[in-house]
Amino acid sequence: MPEIRTLNVAISPCPNDTFIFGAWILGLVPDLEGCRSRFAWRDVDLLNQWARKNYCSLVKVSAGQALDLQDKYFILSSGAAFGLSHGPKLVARRGLKTRPGFIAVPGLQTTACSLLRAALDYDFKALPMPFDRIVDCLEQGHADAGLLIHETALIYQQYHLELLLDLGSWWGEEAGDLPLPLGCIIMRKDLGQALKDRVEEQIRCSLDTARQRQPELMPLISHLAQEMDTDVIDRHIRAYVNQYSRDMGRPGKEALQKLQQLKTSMSDPSDRSDTSDKSDKSDTSDKLRQNPLNPTHSNK
Fold first, then answer.
1. Contact 93, 161 (CB under 8 A)
2. Measured between alpha carbons, how far is 117 from 109 in angstroms, rounded to an integer?
3. Mean pLDDT of the chain
4. Strands (E), the chain
5. Which residues are catalytic?
6. Contact 76, 187 (CB under 8 A)
7. DSSP string spanning 193-240?
8. Is the separation of the CB atoms in 127 and 142 below 8 Å?
9. pLDDT 10s digits, 196-227
10. Are 92 and 143 a contacting pair, CB within 8 Å?
11. 253 phi, psi to nearest 5 deg
12. Which of 26, 115, 237, 251 has the maximum number of C-beta atoms within 10 A of its C-beta?
């Protein structure tokens, strides 16, 4: 009798992941031949930590983290989260009059945090915490601003928060038409190229089935989602599940290369201009849409 291989698969509980993997999880598509797949879902920052410790066969991680782990992991062409017009959002309670010094972020290794460091022209103190605690952190006054991802970034107005910086728009200015790489599925290289190809096709099959049978997935998706409203869940899926989730293709790979360039420039202090000399960035107020990050801005 052939040996059955166990695949430990870890994803986030967010609607885009549970939508893509839901048909596989629920058995609406058969498991990979010769494999027994076991699923877990955790906060993305914990998934990043699990990947660094080789806990999983297959794991969803921040796109920036995927780039850092390429010596041990394949970046799969399917299952990724790319933003087309949406991205992480930096927000604050209304009335903030100075640029924020303490910013709550959904993990130091997340793509959102990397983008924020690249976008802001000054140093700030990042306070890492689970993404679903950031709004509470702001409401309790423990941080000046918060970096929102997932469903909460789509409905920040409902929490009476003010938008300081839309990193989706910022990425568009930096990268043109390239989609914004937020999260990727990675698989341990020691499992082999042949299994990688099979897993990529399995994810595509799961996604295709989800599109055909979404009502059957909704109990699972709603149970795990941070925001329970079905309209918010649907908006989240439409925002981050797109053609690049099925196959990132050349645009997706080029977007990852652009993200790598940004990460590399951030690791080189010579590429970060001193905030006291910003004469070539007079358009900062336009990029930040009239918010307190610009020290010359005042709230009326």
1. yes
2. 11
3. 86
4. 5-11, 35-41, 58-62, 73-75, 81-83, 89-93, 102-105, 125-128, 145-148, 161-166, 180-188
5. 150
6. yes
7. HHHHHHHHHHHHHHHHHHHHSHHHHHHHHHHH-SS--HHHHHHHHHHH
8. yes
9. 999 999 999 999 999 999 999 999 999 998 76
10. no
11. -65, -40
12. 115
Reported as a pLDDT band with limits 50, 70 and 90, residue 29 is very high
Instruction: Compute CA distances 258 → 114, 179, 181, whole Å.
Output: 12, 10, 9
Q: Which residues, in sequence order, are CB contacts of 248 under 8 Å at separation 6+?
A: 77, 78, 80, 82, 181, 255, 256
> Please, what is the end-to-end C-alpha distance for the chain in angstroms?
74
Q: What is d(CA 44, CA 59) in angstroms, rounded to the nearest whole number?
A: 10
Separation of alpha carbons 233 and 97, rounded Å: 33
The H or E element that residue 44 is part of is helix 44-52
How many Cβ atoms from other residues are within 10 Å of residue 8's Cβ?
Answer: 16
Model-level pTM greater than 0.85?
Answer: no
Q: Kindly tell me if the per-residue pLDDT of 71 is higher than 90.
A: yes
Tokens 């997935």 belong to: 217
Given a contact cutoff of 8 angstroms between Cβ atoms, the answer to whether 43 and 110 are in contact is no
Could you tell me which of 69, 81, 75, 46 has the C-alpha nearest to residue 199?
75
Measured distance CA(163)–CA(204) in Å, rounded: 35
